[in-house]
């Protein structure tokens, strides 16, 4: 039986982010929307459609609110690896996708601030209704995925056309599923129905899950970006592979077949600010960086024209090669820059303009003091030269910032363990903000029909 989801048969994915204009034209051109399947619209039943179909049940009012460690049905705080002495150790725990809730909270105290605020806003106001989720899914455009978690398992209810973001949709569903199957107590997770966007930024409609948001996007729930799985369009493989390649530059590689390679010491890195990229995606910011650094000896900054193959070949810097520079420029594009995670994996100093677009791990960024783990400059880069010169003159300060970035990001907030902790925390907090639970089966014309497909079956149909 074919699944009732429209899948594009081939994907041509450009080496760039989606632009707002592109998104808009895709929305206008597309006729493939949620709910259009080969077998009709049955998976969009709502409480009030008069056919006896519901799609959801309301929760009991007391079922929503809980605090950490008290989630309904949780028994995890009694497991042997959760005790007062447990502390996160990167070598042992960094790749563990199945940490317990209390371990996650202990290891990543700064990861959940935005989710907490989102939940509190809803609990203090109006809980998320099925109708909101339903309307978001129907009206949102191509890049949306509608799914559910039930008894700790993932279901796909709708998958948009995704001419540009197909791999992102797949990557994100795989990441979410990984966070579920790695968690022994997954059956204790609450049941939810959600919609996420695979575009650079969402339409902002509540309660969408999105890779990035601005502070004022009050309806948007942050989720981890697709790069935690893999990012093929820019020739970055799986997250584990790129982390290994980056660590090999900084720490050396004793596993290579040839003789062991030593890592590069911070003081031996090139004393330059590195950046490569397209200016068109955000000419104000990226153009500003180009002007502020033009002709400076401390700058290794080049524009890349992604449509010009020889330009790409000449100027592209493999991601791990960035780590050979002391200073790495971080720039927003159309919204957040997916590259930021990799830059923060290097033992280098990330220099970023003041950010508009937030990601989940940004709660751990510190711009000043002894704990500083990156350097912040103005959005017009007017103080860039002064700050670079200070860092070049004060190499011990620069090295401290680079070491703090490794400790905070590479070895903690940007580990695979943190990513999966975030997914489960999002599920719990989002659930606490919802007044309903999904029902994935309904009666239509006297017959039982499914409202979703299990992730396992869905994955085989691609
Ligand atoms: C946790 O373990 C203690 C001692 O083994 C037991 O008394 C307690 O009831 C357990 N709590 C839960 C929630 O299972
Ligand atoms: C490789 O071996 C050297 C010398 O034993 C050691 O100092 C270094 O930390 C090792 N690097 C890695 C990545 O394990
Ligand atoms: C980029 O390269 C393409 C193909 O060579 C060319 O047509 C286009 O004008 C270039 N764009 C810029 C901004 O230089």
From TrEMBL:
Transmembrane segments: 15-34
Region named Disordered: 67-93
Superkingdom per UniProt: Eukaryota
Keywords: Coiled coil, Membrane, Transferase, Transmembrane, Transmembrane helix
Polar residues: compositionally biased ranges: 67-84
GO molecular function: transferase activity
Keyword Methyltransferase: no
Coiled coil segments of this chain: 367-394
Chloroplast recorded as keyword: no
Domain named Glycosyl transferase CAP10: residues: 188-437
InterPro entries: CAP10, O-Glucosyltr/Glycosyltrsf_90
Protein name stated in the entry: Glycosyl transferase family 90-domain-containing protein
Annotated organism of origin: Aspergillus cavernicola
């Amino acid at each position: 039986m074919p699944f009732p989801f429209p899948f594009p048969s081939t994907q041509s994915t450009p080496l760039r982010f989606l632009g707002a204009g592109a998104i808009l034209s895709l929305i206008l051109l597309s006729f493939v929307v949620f709910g259009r399947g080969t077998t009709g619209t049955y998976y969009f039943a709502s409480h009030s459609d008069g056919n006896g179909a519901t799609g959801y049940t309301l929760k009991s009012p007391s079922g929503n609110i809980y605090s950490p460690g008290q989630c309904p049905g949780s028994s995890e705080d009694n497991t042997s690896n959760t005790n007062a002495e447990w502390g996160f150790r990167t070598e042992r725990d960094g790749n563990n996708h199945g940490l317990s809730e209390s371990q996650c909270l202990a290891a990543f105290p700064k990861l959940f601030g935005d989710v907490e605020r989102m939940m509190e806003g809803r609990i203090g106001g109006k809980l998320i209704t099925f109708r909101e989720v339903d309307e978001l899914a129907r009206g949102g455009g191509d890049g949306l995925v509608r799914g559910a978690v039930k008894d700790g398992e993932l279901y796909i209810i709708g998958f948009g056309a995704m001419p540009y973001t197909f791999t992102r949709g797949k990557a994100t569903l795989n990441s979410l599923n990984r966070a579920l199957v790695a968690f022994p107590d997954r059956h204790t997770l609450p049941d939810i129905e959600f919609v996420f966007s695979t575009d650079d930024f969402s339409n902002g409609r509540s309660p969408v899950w999105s890779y990035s948001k601005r502070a004022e996007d009050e309806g948007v729930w942050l989720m981890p970006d697709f790069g935690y799985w893999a990012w093929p369009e820019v020739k970055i493989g799986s997250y584990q592979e790129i982390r290994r390649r980056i660590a090999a530059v900084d720490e050396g590689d004793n596993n290579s077949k040839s003789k062991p390679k030593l890592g590069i010491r911070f003081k031996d890195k090139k004393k330059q600010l590195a950046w490569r990229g397209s200016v068109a995606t955000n000419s104000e910011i990226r153009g500003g960086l180009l002007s502020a650094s033009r002709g400076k000896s401390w700058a290794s900054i080049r524009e890349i024209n992604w449509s010009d193959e020889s330009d790409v070949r000449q100027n592209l810097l493999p991601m791990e090669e960035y780590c050979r520079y002391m200073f790495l420029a971080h720039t927003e594009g159309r919204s957040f820059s997916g590259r930021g995670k990799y830059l923060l994996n290097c033992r280098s100093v990330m220099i970023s303009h003041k950010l508009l677009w937030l990601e989940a791990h940004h709660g751990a960024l510190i711009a000043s003091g002894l704990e500083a783990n990156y350097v912040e400059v103005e959005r017009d880069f007017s103080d860039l030269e002064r700050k670079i010169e200070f860092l070049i003159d004060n190499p011990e300060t620069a090295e401290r910032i680079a070491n703090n970035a490794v400790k905070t990001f590479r070895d903690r907030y940007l580990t695979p363990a943190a990513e999966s902790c975030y997914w489960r925390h999002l599920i719990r907090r989002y659930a606490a903000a919802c007044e309903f639970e999904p029902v994935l089966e309904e009666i239509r014309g006297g017959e039982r029909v499914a409202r979703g497909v299990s992730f396992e079956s869905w994955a085989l149909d691609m």
